[in-house]
Amino acid sequence: MIIRCKCGARWMECRRQWVRKMASIAAAGGLAVYGSGCAAPSAMSSSVQYSGPVHLDRDVQAIHVSKAQEGRPDGGESSIALGFIVFIPGVPFGPQKFTPERYFANAAMMGYDFRDDLTQTVIRDLAAAGLARSVGYDAYVGSQREHGVYRLELTLKQGIWNRNFTTYGCSFMGSYWWMLGLPVSYGNVQLAFEATLRAPDGKELGRQLFAASTPLTESAYVPHKFPKRLPLLYQQISPDLRRFVQDCLKDAPPEPERPAVAAVQPSTSAPAVQESAGARLEKLKELKDKGILTDEEYAIRRQKLVDEL
């Protein structure tokens, strides 16, 4: 006996149509998530709203900020594969870890360097704070000495999106819930880095860890929530970082004056020669006036003396 459904199609054909429909819904949901991130996100350094200047009682010539060193536990590696267990029916969520580098690469920004972005953010922040006459990038890390230049060394400790990818236990059908507005994932974003300020002579003035975190619920219709959280986290850290640098500079011992370059004393040999030659010319003239030298002899000796000068 052949079982037929109400539409008149055979049961197996109806089943195939149902599977195709669910697959198209899942694909549409995936496209909604992917399509929401088609526009490239902005770097953190260009998205932070920097505060105004702070007061410092001393004049600082320059602060050079070195590129942030890698200090993350995972070394900047993402962990994504485990999250796809959500497509097993009955599994509610799958944990994932996204670094900024991986996320920006997915958004077609392959050359993005989060450590450099963090460094540029700190440079712009300290420049806006007016803590020195000039704040710039310094690629050198170490105890190199330069008169009047303080060095800020950074180490990135954490920069991660802890993402719990969810299909609500419905496997591919879970994307249907995304399209209805339910979250695609839950989790949080963490940012942490260590700063060390050194005096011009290389002496360490202070070291401090700065950290902030915020929850993140991802939607299929609001793009780039992760990179948008990074500037907000830095803005939470910024007041403490400014205060740290300000206090270190206030407590720093005064820098010794740069030794003055000894002035070059003018040579006295030339005037001595000139005085000697002048005296000899006077003597020649006296000999001529007394009639000891003829006019011809006087002219010859005088010309010889002038040639020696």
Structural features, described:
With 309 residues, the protein is α/β, with parallel strands linked by helices. The protein has two domains: 210 residues, 3-Layer(aba) Sandwich (Rossmann fold); 31 residues, no CATH class. The protein is 37% helix and 21% strand. It has seven helices and seven strands; from the N terminus they run αβββααββαββααα. Strands 1, 2, 3, 4, 5, 6 and 7 form a seven-stranded mixed β-sheet that branches. Strand 6 and strand 7 form a beta hairpin. Helix 6 runs antiparallel to helix 7. The protein is elongated. The N and C termini lie far apart (133 Å).
Keywords:
309 residues, Rossmann fold, alpha/beta, elongated
Give the structure's gist in a few sentences:
By secondary structure, the chain is an alpha/beta fold. It has helices at 11-35, 100-106, 114-129, 175-179, 225-251, 269-289, 295-308, and strands at residues 62-66, 69-70, 93-98, 134-138, 149-166, 185-198, 204-218. The chain has 2 domains: 42-251, 3-Layer(aba) Sandwich (Rossmann fold), CATH 3.40.50; 278-308, no CATH class.
